[in-house]
Prior knowledge:
Elements: H1 3-6, H2 53-61, H3 78-83, H4 86-104, H5 109-118, E1 121-125, H6 129-137, H7 143-151, H8 154-161, E2 162-163, H9 174-178, H10 182-190, H11 198-209, E3 211-214, E4 220-223, E5 226-230, H12 237-255, E6 264-267, H13 271-284, E7 292-294, H14 305-319, H15 324-341, E8 348-351, H16 353-360, E9 376-380, H17 382-385, H18 391-400, E10 407-412, H19 417-434, E11 442-447, E12 457-465, H20 467-478, E13 495-498, H21 502-512, E14 526-529, H22 535-547, E15 552-555, E16 570-573, H23 580-587, E17 598-605, H24 613-626, H25 636-641, H26 647-656, H27 671-679, H28 687-714
Helix pairs in contact: 11-12, 12-13, 14-15, 16-18
Amino acid sequence: MDALRVLTRSTNLKPKPIAASSSRLPSAGKAENPQLFRSADNQSSKKRKRQDSEEEADFEAADDQTLDFFGTPKKTSSAAKESVSKHEQKPNEADQDFAEDEDTKSMNEEERRSILKTHKIKVSDMRDLKEILAIKMGRKKSKKIEKMIASMTKKQQKQARQLYPEPLTSFGVLRKKYSIPKRLEQNIAEQGFRVPTEVQIGSLPILLGGISISTENGTETHANPDLMVVAPTGSGKTLAFMIPLIDKVVRHHREHPGKREIFAIIVAPTKELVGQIVNEGRKLALGTGVKVTAMRKGMKVVDDQEELEDDTESEDSSSAESSDDDEEDLDESQEKRRRNVTVTKSDILVTTPLVLVNALSAKQKKAVSPLPSIRHLVLDEADVLLDPLFRDQTTAIWNACTNVDLQISFWSATMGSSIEEFTKSMIKDRRTSLGISSAAPLIRVVIGLKDTAVPNIRHKLVYASNEQGKLLGLRQLIHPTAPVPSNEPRLRPPFLIFTQTIPRAVALYSELLYDIPVEAGGSSRIAVLHSDLSEKRRSEIMKGFRKGEIWIIVTTDLLARGVDFRGVNGVINYDIPTSSAAYVHRVGRTGRAGREGGIAVTFYTKEDIPYVKSIANMIDISEKLQGRTEDKSVQKWLLDALPDLSKEDRKYLKKHGVKARQASAKLRGDEKLAREARRNRISTKSAYDRRRERRKKEAIMASRKRRAESQSSED
Length: 715
């Protein structure tokens, strides 16, 4: 039976329970546990409550009692309710308080090390290794330390940088241990967050309580360091940096009552991601007095009072010679200008780089205005923001934050070594320019294996020979004609389809427009989303997809990063990603927050063979993390047969994509490539039909030309 004919996304219908034998879909609901890395013995680091044997027997008899970390707890059976009396509930409450008190106690290093290792969390000090060893050994930098470093292996050097801060055991201890506002604690609970994910376990204690580090004097100091977090997609990074920001803004309001200024800036690469961060931030900041605002064109973030006074003086001198009507018009223009100059009254500003840079520089040749009030700068998807595409704009914002107490954090699922070196050099140059002598170090938190795809989804690499084969393969996924094996995951809507360019996305959308039956909603169930669309249209498509009104979105890499769709069942890479990092972010739109059952399908043709190896390696690593030894998507013989890509080719691919799929207008200088690009366009028309259309167009153009020539000769 065709799934598209019977599928419904009505919110009024309650989902039926899934059988144990069937594979769980990401859209079936919230994950039972949002953690990606956990063992069966230690699924939660929270200590268990002590219970009597009678109570254990009562709760075992309650078949309906299931633990749902993100949903409302189910009611216990009547037998279990009757067995628990009021007299027995009081000791349980006392035991719960005792357990929470136990959680608030500080752990020793062995306990911290055990919990961090269980959840595959690595915390490293990014300072120079010479400085770290000199502090640990109580010596100044010398040649002995340099010889020691030269004799150390890479593993020993990593161990020397390793730190073991105290992890977060549960959201319930945030108020008792870190004194977050009560309203913020309630908002976290109301949003359904019970068990912290790995990135929250490792980063929240550092951002809320700081970290103890050794100094050159041999003493331990408590510092608020700059933070770099590398965590898988969908692991809860937005919550990890929003909770500390709201907490610190509330503290700032208490220390400076009546004073509101921009306290923190969050920079994201796309408008869709900006809107998502603002929505999540407003849910957490509800009732706390913290204002989270998205940056828009025309907003003022710096007070231009001097410029306003100069303009009003010149207007006053000219108004002395004008009539009464002119004076009234002048007053209106002054009032409008005063309203325009009003500085944004916001605590946390979320923006894309270009919009904020344009707001900080009133004129194109004018330098970026400083922002001394900013104490926290968050770069979400930092590897893209510090890539050459956005680097100048991001560094301009970074340099504009002139407060000496600025704390900056970098968040992404992929972070290359070149980006890490660039951030360290930028931090060092900024401290030198501002004259900051002693400052907290840069701490890096890595969840799982660095720069790898999420380990809870299935990957498929499909060879399709040519463009027509890819289109047939895509239709086969949407309308499977052959029975799907029981152990093979089946692609079900909703899902995303990624292409290399905007014209290809539009062409593929046109081809699939009528593939969904009318009974299932027809063409209204599919949409195309790219940067050429208006902001209003883009937001409408996003809302429709989240509501379930749209099942399939054909898009470019615009939606590849950060955007959280909690019910996406699959991702199709119709065109191969331009890098392994792009693959990690694309497939990360499914399998979010620990959900299992997602599938990622990647098509490749003979033109893509030189560029497939990095993606095949990424799939192989992900399957090793899953522990899969049989039925693997990438076999060893394929990895050995695929060619390696040179450094120059990797750079070209990342910047331009596969040459055969670029717009033919960009390849006019190379007729061979232009002809290949025309041949590889997305279309189901045969070569015969295309030749007929071309001849018809040429005949029409020739007729118009002859008519114009005859008319000109008569004239």
